[in-house]
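The instructor's notes for this session suggest beginning with a concrete chain rather than abstract definitions. Hand out the sequence below and ask the class to guess, before any prediction is shown, which regions might be ordered.
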Amino acid sequence: MVLIVSLPLLLLFACRSPSRNPGLQVSVSGGLGIDPGRAAFESIALPQTGTLGDDPQVLAEEIYGTEDPVEDDYSEEVVTLISLDDEQVVQFSRMELPDDSVRGLRYRLEFVPQGEQWELTWVGQQVTCRPGRGHEDWSTAPCL
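After discussion, reveal the predicted structure:
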């Protein structure tokens, strides 16, 4: 079997900072994901610090990733939805949370260039619920 890896994707993995939780698997997508749009997310407050950096995907993981020990099924995924010279939109998902109602959290993070770096300017959030605890699709409605 031959594995073909694009140079930008290879560089992304080579230049990424190590995960803050060594047992955690973080999936990073170099391709563009399907953008559900800003209206599908509930706007949440921006973090007080850490909103400026070189790589929006790394910033998303640093801001919303976990440093706590996680269970075997827990996962995080970072996907770039929009990649333009004047805008980057990243989706960061956390699945199989250790919660009896909420199965997953998903964030939409919007970045604009600030000199040679990217600045986080907007964040929205969605949840998906466990079976029997509310909706099982991505929504802004709370779980039961």
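Then share the key points. The chain has one domain: 43-144. Strands lie at 26-32, 42-44, 52-53, 75-84, 87-95, 102-114, 117-129.
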